[in-house]
Amino acid sequence: MSKDEFSNHPITPEELPQINSQSFTPLSNTYIKVNLMCRLIFWLMVVSALLILYWQPWVALPRLLEVYLPQIQLTAGVFGLLSSVYGILADKNKGYAIREHDFSYRSGVIFQSVVSQPILRIQHVELKHGPIDRHFGLASLEIFSAGGAMHTFAIPGLPEKKAREIRSYVLTHSDIAAND
């Protein structure tokens, strides 16, 4: 069959590639630690603000608030610890996979999801990093599909060098594949 002839052979469900068989690369351990540090600092600030409110001598608190403020502080502390543990589990479950024709991102603890994007449909790849990411040498990679205004998915917590390599590979690969 020549290159110009059209072919559309049926594929049985057994022949389909299995997404579960993909080998996902986990995110950077630095990202997991930085995320944990940010969560703990946030919750420490919330509990500290509640403690300051409870012990401050300038304004008399309403009796009801004064009675329940210790329970609110304890609840905020416990919720902060639980959300930090959940965050660690969530960050450890995140990963990405690059194959010849597609790019996938896995996330979720309770509700797990895998988003795959054919490389041919990738229109734009953006590299982003905020001040905390920059300080720790991390970056996020946002993958935009053709025809979409929002990114298809974003992969946080990549070492900046690796993010640049992936971005370059995806852009180069999509250009080569489009010209074949």
Structural write-up:
47% of the residues lie in helices and 22% in strands. The chain is an alpha+beta fold and 180 residues long. The strands form 2 sheets. It has a 4-stranded antiparallel beta sheet. A 3-stranded antiparallel beta sheet has the order 5-6-7. A hairpin with a 5-residue loop joins strand 3 (102-107) and strand 4. Helix 1 packs antiparallel against helix 2 (63-93). The radius of gyration is 23 Å and the shape is elongated. The two termini are 17 Å apart. The model has no long low-confidence stretch (mean pLDDT 87).
Share in β-strands: 15-25%
Q: How many H/I helical runs?
A: 4
**Looking at the structure, what is the overall shape?**
elongated
> If you compute it from the alpha carbons, what radius of gyration comes out, rounded to the nearest whole angstrom?
23 Å
Major sheet size, sense and barrel closure: 4 strands, antiparallel
Mean pLDDT: 87
Low-confidence segments, ≥5 residues, pLDDT <50?
Answer: none
Helix amount: 40-55%
Defining key terms:
180 residues; single chain; alpha+beta; three-stranded antiparallel sheet
Compact summary:
This protein is an alpha+beta fold.
Which secondary structure elements does this structure contain, and how are they paired or packed?
Blueprint: E1 25-26, H1 29-55, H2 63-93, E2 95-98, E3 102-107, E4 113-118, E5 122-128, H3 131-136, E6 138-145, E7 153-159, H4 160-179
Antiparallel strand pairs: 1-2, 2-3, 3-4, 5-6, 6-7
Helix pairs in contact: 1-2
